[in-house]
Amino acid sequence: MEQYITGTPVATIIFLFTIVTSLYAFSNPEVYGKLMLHPYSVSRGKRIYSLITSGLIHKDWGHLIMNMLSYFFFAFKLEATFVQFNPQWGHVQFAFLYLISLILSDVSSVIKHKEDFWYNSLGASGAVCAVVFSSILFDPLSTMYVMPIPFPIYSVVYGFLFLGYCMYASRASRDNINHDAHLYGALTGILVTVLYYPEITSFFFNQITGRQA
Fold first, then answer.
1. Which residues pair with 153 in a beta bridge?
2. CB-based burial of residue 170 (10 Å sphere; 0-12 exposed, 13-18 middle, 19+ buried)?
3. Is the pLDDT of residue 41 over 80?
4. Using N-to-C axis directions, what is the helix angle for 200-209 and 180-196, rounded to 10°?
5. 3-state helix, strand, coil in the chain (%, to 5)
6. Which of 31, 53, 119, 145 has its C-alpha lying 20 to 30 A from 205's C-alpha?
């Protein structure tokens, strides 16, 4: 645990704080009401804070576990990568990527549901997707196991499978999980990473095609 705190403090704080807040909200409906994103209110200049706080709570155990597993597999590695490339500002870069992705992915929901008084959403999905796709740019051919697939798949394949599911779920959604946030979070994560390191695009395609940098 000490290596996470000292080596990747931002990722560690976000990870622990999100889990604690989500668990607390499971047994406190009033917290859900205050922290969930309410696009109708936000579009009218109220509850602006929910653009961030909605990413600190989750619908249920399954939702929390899915997001935090993806976060765990990619976030700590990504912060360490940023620090490796930029020792002075790497931690700040990771914090900014996570925060801006959380906000911008929620803005899409505010625009889409600004006239729907009864619509609320929650979850860290947008920011987690940003972390996943940012990490994929650095190491697209790393492998991972995803149940129920009985063989390892490349992280880049996982990313697009995950996005495909989220786009489908967004259209068929009947819950309060912010499925739209996945796509916009992923795009934000890619854009911010490219702004940080413009050379990452050529590195990514060289990795995919097998060319030498």
1. 144
2. middle
3. yes
4. 110
5. 70, 5, 25
6. 145
pLDDT at 1: 64
Over residues 51-70, the pLDDT tens digits come to: 999 999 998 898 899 889 88
Q: Which of 67, 54, 52 is nearest to 103 (CA)?
A: 52
Q: Is the pLDDT of residue 144 over 90?
A: no
Crossing angle of helices 9-26 and 90-112, in 10° steps, is 40
- Which residue from 192, 204, 193 is spatially nearest to 141, judged by alpha carbons? 204
Task: Say if residue 171's pLDDT is above 80.
Answer: no
What pTM value is reported for the model?
A: 0.89
Domains in the chain, CATH or no CATH each: 2-209 (1.20.1540.10)
Name which of 37, 74, 69 is nearest 53 in CA terms: 37
